[in-house]
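Appendix B. Chain record.
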Amino acid sequence: MESQLIAKYRPLFVLAALGLVPTVQAQVLEEVVVTATRREESAQTVPVSITAISAAQLADAGVAGIRDLGTLTPGLNMNARSNVWIPFIRGIGAGDTSGGQESGVAIYVDGVYMSSPHAGQFNFDSIDRVEVLKGPQGTLFGRNATGGLIQVITKDPTQKTEAFAKVSYGSYETSAISGYLGGGITPNLTADITVQYGDQGEGYGYNLFGGQRTRLQGDRDKGFRSKWIWTPSDATKVTFAVDSQRHDTNTGDDRSLLPGSVAFDGTTKLGGFYDVNYNFPTYGFVENSGAMLKVQQDLSFANFVSITAYRKLREYNSFDNDALPTSVVEAQQFLRVNTFTQELQLLSKPGGKLDWIVGAFFMHDLNGYVPPGGLQLNGVQVTGTAAPVYVELMHSMDTQSIAGFAETTWHFDASNRLVTGVRVTRDQKRLAGEIRLDTTAVGGGISVLSANNVTDNPPAASWTKPSVRIAYQHDFAKDIMGYASFNRGFRAGTYNTVGVTGVPINPETDNAYEIGLKSQWFDNRLRFNAAAYYTDYQGLQVVISRGPTTDTLNAGAARIEGLELDVEAAVTDQLTLRAATSLISSKYTQFVSGDLCSIRNNLGQTTLGPVCSPQGNELLRTPKETVNLGLNYKVPVGYGTLQGDLDYFWTAKFNWELDGRLVEPAYGLLNGRISWEHPNQHFGVAAYGKNLTGTKYSSFDVSQAGSRGGIGIGDQYVAGAPLTWGVELNFKL
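Structure tokens predicted for this chain:
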């Protein structure tokens, strides 16, 4: 057993050993400045477990969007469903991505909160850095950060004229082009613009419906972002930003039966791992746009910040929910999200014995299924009979949230600091809409099952919740800091918008205890960080499948405890090594509602089994262990500079559903990139590959049981991306 463990972790041991003996000529590691405390500070001085990734590191690793961050971030697990990439941090995320719902991992772009999980589908063009904060961040960032948050900081234009462009082509007829132009307009006005377009002409497999072999289609992205900065005086800075992106996908919900699963009509898995066999077209798009106005004013005694933002999201999805060549459950959805946010901050001047920040936050969010179709379900499973029906749900959630917060950092002396913070949030949510049933095809008609605010006009639900932070940090020596912290966060209450009950779902809360160490050695050539934590998770909002729909409910309690280790070493001027691991132990400690478990019988059919409780099971999408390894080698050659980057991500097995029956086996992904840059740094060429070993894994698994005569549709999966490759040309002014 010991030899197996040594073999498994040999890369980690070797990396640590190499990092502890950097050569005299080794370069220093790049310092990444973060805004985890709403101030610009080095990531190594902040008493928060944080992974900060610079623009250069993102480019070297081929990380093109939030979907790829898990390969570089210990404790972050990314999965996909339809147009949504779902982040889980330390076992906490979004089990329900239906209209009106919000995630347990918040996403911010330039300080602006993205209320919908569907808003995370955008590309990392003209990015300055990405910060992944782990554990509840309720004091300074507020609601829906029980697991943590992902903060994307875009590039600021300067007076210096900058321009760069990238053109690429790769496997599956994938082509992309992007460009950036920025600089000074007047002595006190700068501006930039980023544009990008990408098209994947082919999907990863074939649709075998009707005995045909039709190539699946790929995805398409296009968008722009522009930022303007006006500095009328040394005391005033005004930033205006506008952006718009559209993502079209034909691959997001390409479901297929898992091998060995047999549907109620005898259908089994056909073809290869990436092939499907369905009769209803899969297609979707997300349009995500918005504008932000940020005003920063030096008031002599403090700094004032105002962030005003409006976001708009439109989404359409059609997908074959049954993944079968017959019409059992086919779905279409029309989703709309309109969000207005206003945040005010007053921050003390740096350098005093007491740093403080006070602020207020307001949000109005309208989020849900809207005309012309709302959420449409069509097929025989909708009512559990052989009669085809058509159900149309139009439900939206109207949310108003207001919060006040304050946080202080008291510097006892040069080595000791105490952080205390509190935030009080009041949320009000109202559910409105109607359900329509169309049985015209079998001699019936259209009837409205509920109207005027679904299920007997439920009143608005309100919750007031505090968030708390206490942290003590101590500098043991120069570049060696330890901390201990307590953080309480909460995820806002909600309603079901699919399996509509009209009963509000209460907020979930977590109390997290953490100790950590951040250190740099050998004149910043070796960086070693560690964090250990325990989380008491109460009132979990969990999702239970009920045929073609889902219900969200408060399920009880869970405990999560873990350890994260992160090492980075500049071994020589040319070679940088990285290694990180996340170890998690999680368990549902209480589950107040038993439900029917799904089972697969000896014929391969999926049915509903006895009532069971997930109590004692591991949390969803929470592997016991993940490993991140990286290597970057940069060396001058006869003409120019050659650079190589390898990144490896490994995850242990994890559960897809509460009953623990559907399990994703352990797998690893290896990505690589090699590039050459001209001596004048104006031109370069690169080749890259992702999933170089061709690992087969799922980005999403689900069980659909008990639809016809007690026998369900079966166990389904959506295939993760196979081996892909490409070449790119880079141009820089």
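Further analysis of this model is presented in Appendix C.
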